[in-house]
TrEMBL record:
Record-linked InterPro entries: EamA_dom, EmrE-like
Pfam families referenced in this protein's UniProt entry, alphabetically: EamA
Subcellular location, principal: membrane
Name under which the protein is recorded: EamA domain-containing protein
Keywords: Membrane, Transmembrane, Transmembrane helix
Any single Gene Ontology cellular-component annotation: membrane
Superkingdom of origin organism: Eukaryota
Species this chain originates from: Pycnococcus provasolii
Membrane-topology annotation of the record: Multi-pass membrane protein
Protein family according to the UniProt entry: Belongs to the drug/metabolite transporter (DMT) superfamily. Plant drug/metabolite exporter (P-DME) (TC 2.A.7.4) family.
Membrane-crossing residue ranges in chain numbering: 182-203, 209-227, 239-259, 265-286, 298-322, 334-351, 363-382, 388-407
Length: 445
């Protein structure tokens, strides 16, 4: 599947990268927060909010790298987008390809397909290239883009030229008092990233994608004991739906009978569920960090630790024990590695553009198309069987998450005053409102 964000999340276990021009998850995500994270979020592996289950959690790395003058609340973004569309339609009746291509729905539609395509390419690639090597190449590429983008954006906000070298360094790697939390979040995110890629060879592409979408359920379950947040009736219903959907995909013989699943299938199941659990832990950690650090800092730690962890596994005897012996890729494999890296970047830009201009519930609904694309690519390009239990399981997982998102949207409207949600009831999409520069610095500008 498209690796997200944990965003962090919308849900993609393959985080993305950053653009100086729009919100980007840098697995977070990323992929919005992240990053998402969802990023949707894929990484969309990060979130700074409550009720992550209703937004771009799949991304597990959806961290938005927004210039100061573009950050806005979700309500203002949505209202502005609607007003712009209305004005454009009244003053310019002619069809505009540029306007159509940048619509949130179109961006998300294309992004979900690219993510699924990326998962297909990675699955083909891992037939000859170790999964950890794929993670290493992608992390290095994403890390370079993340740092370069962050510095470029920082040059245009809050007097970057007037900052000392230590202040510039801190704006990229964070404050020393937050290193412990950033390290924990990075370890969770990097581990989820590696497990998601490691699971790809053992599972049908559609099942691989659908199982990662259960990470919002882990977040909902952990939010009460960890963050003291209530689990609503809608959250409970989505948990039951996701659990039932997972059983339909896994089909344990003790319940369904028939021939037992292969050991490799079960290995893939546990790896992917472990990835979803760790992605949820990464999101919760980012929510705990809150606005003490910028999305850029969170993304840099995630990408750095992803690269370090994959390199340490690949280049030590432990890698050989795990069957992850590095190879020198041939021309075809090198090209496919480039495709995985580039498609993750392109998909995350489109994904975060969609989450930037659309209401979270609508965006999340479109993001679930990734399950459909993955199942179709697996069936058509890889010859994987599509069974009715798997289809029904994916529908239950995605439907449960979407229903919870719609309920949370209605609940948030009821408690919102003046366009701002009550404290402690922010969604994962709120990461898009977080700028590269802390609020305290912007206020003193």
């Amino acid at each position: 599947m498209a690796p997200p964000p944990m965003p962090m999340p919308s849900p993609s276990p393959f985080p993305g990268d950053a653009s100086p021009h729009m919100a980007v998850s840098v697995s977070t995500s990323n992929l919005g927060g992240e990053v998402s994270s969802s990023l949707s979020a894929p990484i969309s592996l990060s979130a700074d909010a409550d009720a992550v289950v209703d937004d771009d959690d799949d991304d597990f790395e959806r961290v938005a790298l927004l210039p100061a003058n573009t950050a806005a609340t979700e309500d203002r973004e949505t209202a502005s987008s609607a007003q712009t569309s209305s004005e454009a339609s009244s003053s310019s009746p002619a069809f505009s390809l540029r306007e159509f291509a940048t619509r949130g729905e179109v961006c998300l539609f294309v992004a979900t397909f690219i993510y699924a395509l990326q998962g297909y390419v990675a699955k083909v690639l891992e037939q000859t290239v170790p999964a950890i090597e794929v993670v290493l190449v992608r992390s290095v590429f994403s890390g370079m883009i993340t740092v370069a983008t962050g510095i470029q954006v920082n040059r245009h906000v809050n007097g970057w030229a007037n900052k000392t070298a230590s202040e510039r360094f801190a704006s990229v790697v964070g404050k020393s008092e937050n290193f412990r939390l950033l390290l924990i979040r990075g370890i969770f995110g990097a581990s989820a990233f590696n497990l998601a890629y490691a699971a790809l060879p053992y599972l049908p592409l559609g099942d691989h994608t659908a199982l990662f979408f259960v990470n919002p359920i882990f977040i909902a379950l952990a939010s009460w004991p960890v963050l003291g947040e209530k689990v609503t009736l809608a959250d409970g219903a989505s948990i039951v739906a996701a659990f039932t959907g997972t059983l339909l995909i896994v089909r344990p013989t003790v319940i369904f009978g028939g021939a037992p699943q292969s050991s490799s299938f079960w290995l893939g199941i546990w790896l992917q569920l472990g990835a979803a659990l760790l992605a949820a832990a990464a999101m919760l950690t980012v929510r705990y960090i809150g606005k003490r650090e910028t999305p850029l800092v969170v993304a840099v730690w995630f990408q750095g630790l992803s690269g370090l962890s994959s390199a340490s596994l690949l280049l030590t005897p432990l890698g050989a024990l795990l069957g992850q012996t590095p190879i020198v890729p041939n021309a075809k494999e090198a090209a496919l590695l480039g495709v995985v890296s580039c498609t993750s970047y392109a998909a995350q830009i489109l994904l975060n553009r969609g989450y930037q201009v659309l209401p979270p519930a609508r965006a999340s609904g479109i993001a679930y198309l990734q399950c459909l694309w993955s199942a179709m690519l697996g069936a058509v390009a890889l010859g994987e069987a599509v069974t009715w239990p798997s289809v029904l399981g994916a529908v239950l997982i995605c439907g449960g998450g979407l229903a919870a998102a719609l309920y949370k949207k209605k609940e948030n409207k009821a408690v919102r005053g003046g366009g701002v949600s009550k404290e402690g009831n922010r969604s994962t999409a709120a990461m898009r409102e977080t700028e590269l520069v802390p609020t305290s610095e912007r206020a003193g500008k």
